[in-house]
Amino acid sequence: MLTPGFRLFFGFTAVAVATAAVYGVASGSAGETEYFAVLNVETWVGVLSLGYKGGIGDHVGYVVLMGFALLSALVAVFLVAFRDADAESVGELTADGRVPATQTDLEANYWPALAAFGLGAMIVGLVTHATVFVIGLVIVVASVFEWMMAAWADRATADPEVNRNLRNRIMRPVEYPVTAALGVAVLVLAMSRVFLTVSKFSAVMVAGAVATVIFLVAVVFAVAPRISRSVIAGTVALACVGVLVAGVITAAMGSRDFHHKGHDAEHGEQAEDHGELE
Asked: Are the C-beta atoms of residues 194 and 206 closer than 8 Å to each other?
């Protein structure tokens, strides 16, 4: 029997695949009228075969929509496997086989507030810049997805710890690599702003100082007998905030002037030739 959660995310999958197909056909039929674009069989074959037997229009939008469809399909499979966290199915996974009671008191959920922030960023992006709109859209999609998974896990059993473990079992394999990739990308971008703002010599000195500090802190954490995880997490968080603040400040200051020696030398040679002719 197909569970309600499976039907919901399978519906997301079907809508995303259909949208990706229409988008791929429409964006790949430039110069054609809408009627003939829809009737272009070769484009439809390319879109439905993921580009194996034909061309696709805008690859970025198509990949984003198909990626969302794939994630929705995976979540649908997880939900139907766990039977939407049905109490009897969860009881089969426990050691003693007891069926837990359902939970009535839910934990605080902050994902709606983050989704509202993303929606505000989308509205601001409509009148400022497309990048802000895309960032807001990503925040909204991620927040809604996490919101639904949190609501599903909160009603799994009467034990909040068991619910948390069920939720982490599904979401942690996705959250850890995605968060790490985004964090590395943001930190690299922030450091690049710093290097592009300061002078060439200062950029080398800043890079050396940052690498030295990271090495020394890692040595202290490795040698110290007992350091709690909260201290390590707080130190890393403060360092990340410092890098982000430095990146924002230097980005507002602007990059330094770059002088191309080859271009200057070419102008110098032209000036000398002009002087000789005179």
From this structure: yes
Q: Which two tokens stand for residue 79?
A: 């939900």
Question: 276 burial class (0-12, 13-18, 19+ CB within 10 angstroms)?
Answer: exposed
* Long-range CB contact pairs, 235-241, < 8 A, 24+: 240/183, 240/187
CA of 5: how far to CAs of 155, 174, 238, in Å?
Answer: 13, 19, 39
Q: Which two tokens stand for residue 19?
A: 């949208």
Alpha-carbon span 192 to 115, nearest angstrom = 29
- Rg of the chain over Cα atoms, rounded to whole angstroms, equals 27
Task: Give me the tens of pLDDT residue by residue for the chain, a chain 278 residues long.
Answer: 677 778 888 888 998 888 888 777 777 654 444 444 455 566 666 677 776 566 676 777 788 888 888 888 888 888 777 766 666 665 665 666 666 565 555 666 788 888 888 888 888 877 777 777 877 888 888 888 888 888 777 777 777 777 788 888 888 888 888 888 888 888 888 888 888 888 888 888 988 998 898 899 888 888 887 877 778 878 888 888 888 888 878 877 877 777 655 555 455 555 555 555 45
